Amino acid sequence: MKNKDGFRIENVSAASIAEKTGTPVYVYSQSAIEKNWAVFCDAVSVFPERTVCFAVKSNANMAVLRVLARSGAGADIVSGTELELALRAGIPAGKIVFSGVGKTEEEITAAVKAGIKQINAESAEELETIADIARKTGQRPVVGIRVNPDVDAHTHAKITTGTKGAKFGIDWTDACPLYRRYARSDDIALSGIEIHVGSQLLSEKPFRETFKKTAAMLRDLESDGVRIDTVDVGGGLGVPYRSGESALSPKTYAALLKEELSFFQGEFVFEPGRFIVANAGWLLARVVRTKRTGGKNFAVLDAGMNDLLRPALYDAYHDVVALSGKEPDTVYDVVGPVCESSDVFGRDRTLPELEAGDYVALCTAGAYGATMSSTYNCRPLAPEVLVKGDRFAVVRRRQTVEDMMGVQLDPDWISG
Ligand code: LLP
Question: Is the dihedral of CA 285, 7, 372, 23 positive or negative?
C-alpha cells in the first residue's frame, strides 16, 4: 500500500487521515474486508450447504459489521451485546451462532427469543439451562455441543482452546452420552457439533487432526442413531503477520475439510474472524519523541498496549511502517507510553530516522485490535475510520473525558 505519495490505504493517504482525526486511530479498508470475505466464501462454496458467520469478537465496529451484513454474513457471537450489535447491523438471527463458556441466563434467553441459528453449549450444565429456558419461552432452540477434540493447535498457548484441560467445550467421552440423552428432547433440538481448536493456525496438521477426530465422532453418533445436521468448524485460519510468513489458503483449508468429512451430508458452519479483518486494518500512531538510553534508540508512540494489546499479551508481531516512506536506516525499539514494561510494539525494528510528529502504521491490526483495547492509564479509546476508494469516514469517534467521566458516580457520603 506504499507508493510515491507515502503510505496509502485504498486511495487515501494514511497521513491525511491521521492529520484529520488525530492519533492513535484505527483505519479499516472496506475493499480489503469485502475481498477477504469473498475469498473465504468462494473457497467454502465447495460445500453445498454452508453458513459463514463472522467472529464478531475480532472486530465489532458497527460499520464493519454492516459491510459484512450487506455481503451476506452471519455472525459468531460470544455475548449478549455482540448479539445486539449483530442484529442492529442487519445480520439475520437465523445466521447467528453463539458460543462461550459463561453465557448467562439473560444472554441465553435473549438468544432463544431472537431465534438464532444455533447455541453452542459448552457444558452439560449449560445444556440444562438452555432446556429450562426453552421450556419457559415455549421455543425449541437449535443447539450444538462444543466438543473439545484434544488437538494441539501449534499456536500461541494463550490462543489454544482445544487441548485437554482447557476450559472450552466438553470432552468427547462426556459429550457423546449427552447427545443420546437429548436425542428426543421436546425442549431443544440438539443437532449440532462445534469444534474450534485455536486461532492463528498456520499449518494443515492441527486442522487435519481436528477434522479426522470430528469424522470419528460423527460416525459414533451415526451408529448411535443420533442425527447431526450441522458441523460448525469454528474459526482459526491464520494470516501472515511478517513478510515471508506463509499461511494456509482458505481453498486448502476447505479441501482438507472436504477430504476428511466428504461423507457428511449436512450443513457446515464457519466462524472466521482474523482472516476477514486482520490485514484490512492499521493502527496509526504518532511519534511523541525519540530517546536514547542503555545503548538503544526508542521511538515512543502515542499508541500503547491499551490500544493494541496483542504484542504485550501474546508476544505478537506487528509490522511497523513509517508513513513517510523514507529509507529505513535506524534501529528502534518501538514502544508505547503506558506504565508497563510490556508496552512494547516491537524490538530492533529498522525504520527511517524518526522524529517527534512522524507517523507510523502498526500493520495487520484489524482483528483483535480495537476489540481488545482498554482505557488503562485513563487513555481514551481510539477512534475508528473506514476507507472506501478515495473516501473515508470516522465510524467511531474518539472517546472523550466526558464520556469517561459520565459513567463515574459519587457516593452520597462524598461530595464532589
Ligand atoms: N470461533 C470460536 C469458537 C472462537 O473461539 C474464535 C476465536 C473464533 C471462532 C474466531 O477465530 P479466528 O478465525 O479469528 O482465529 N485475541 C486473540 C485471538 C483469540 C481468539 C478467540 N477465539 C488474538 O488476538 O490473537
Answer: positive
